[in-house]
Amino acid sequence: MEKMSSRQLAKTAERIPRLRGYLEKLYARLNRPDLIKPDPLQFVYRYKDPADREIAGLLAALLAYGRVAQIEKSVDRLLGKMGDSPAAFVREFDRRKRRNLADFRHRFNTGDDISDLIEQLKYILSTAGGLEAYFLKGYKPTDKNVAAAIGAFCGSILKRHAEKNGGHVSRGVKYLITDPTKGSAAKRINLFLRWMVRNDAVDAGVWKSVEKSKLLVPMDVHMSRISRVLGLHNRKNISIKAAVEVTDGFAEIEPADPVKYDFALCRVGMEQDCACMEQLQRIAEGNI
User: Fold this and answer.
1) By C-alpha distance, which of 230, 232, 136, 247 is closest to 190?
2) How far is CA 19 from the centre of its chain?
C-alpha cells in the first residue's frame, strides 16, 4: 500500500490552522443532540443506567451496517425484545431468552448470532461487572492508541465463543466482532468507543477510565473519502492501518481529541454536502 510522502505530510501540516478553524465551524453547526437521529447512537439515550447504555450501545454499534433505516428498525426490534433493561436481560440470559431472539435477523446476522454474543456479554458482566472494566484488562494508558486493547477485547470474545463452539467461530459472530489484529479497521467497535469515552453534546461519556486521546477514527466509506480529500491517507483499503494513519492526521489538528470531528464529518459525508467537501478540499490544497 502506498503511504503519504513527507512532502504531502508537510503540505497538510501547513494547512492545520485553517483546517482546525473550518472543522470547529462544522463541529459547532453539526455536533448537536437534535441531529443524532437517525444515528444508532440514539439508542444509547433510551436508557439512563450506565450499564444499560453500555449494552445498548455495543449492540447498536455492532448492527450499524447497511441502510440507515434498516439499522434503526433492527436495533429498535432487538432492544424491544430485551425489555426495559438490556443489562438485566444479559445478566439473566437463558434458553427461554434465546428462543425469544430466534426470529431476529439483520442482514448477515441472525438471532442465534446475537444470542451467542449475549452469552459472552453475560460472562463479561458476571466476571468483570461491566464492559468498561473488561475492556480495561487489555488497555494500557502508555499505548499510543486503543488498537491493542480492541484486539484483546475482541480476541477474548471470539476465543471464548470458539471454546463453546467446538473450536469454531461462527461466521455471524465473526462478522459482528471484527478483529483489528487481522487487519480490520474495527469501525463499529471504534464507533462504540467514541460514544462511551467522549463526552459532549452528542457522545454519552459513560466510560471514565479510557483517554479520548487514545481513540481511533471509526473508518467507513464516508470517512475514508473525506480523509482522502483532507490528504490524511491514500490507502486503497479501509484497514486498521488506515484508521491509525487518519487518526494520526486528526491528532495533528486536535491532539487531545482526534475523533472530535467524527460525528460532524459523517453528517457531511452521509448528506453528500458538496459545498463542505469542496471547502475542505480547497483548504487542504492550500487554495484558501
Assistant:
1) 247
2) 23
Domain boundaries, the chain: 1-31+217-288, 37-172+187-209
First and final C-alpha spacing in the chain: 30
Helix (H) or strand (E) holding 109: strand 109-110
Q: Tens of pLDDT along the chain (288 residues)?
A: 345 455 555 555 567 888 899 999 999 999 999 999 999 999 999 999 999 999 999 999 999 999 999 999 999 999 999 999 999 999 999 999 999 999 999 999 999 999 999 999 999 999 999 999 999 999 999 999 999 999 999 999 999 999 999 999 999 999 999 989 999 999 999 999 999 999 999 999 999 999 999 999 999 988 998 999 888 888 888 999 999 999 999 999 999 999 999 999 999 887 777 788 888 888 887 776
Q: Quick one: 131 exposed, middle or buried, by C-beta within 10 A (0-12, 13-18, 19+)? A: buried
pTM across the whole model:
0.93
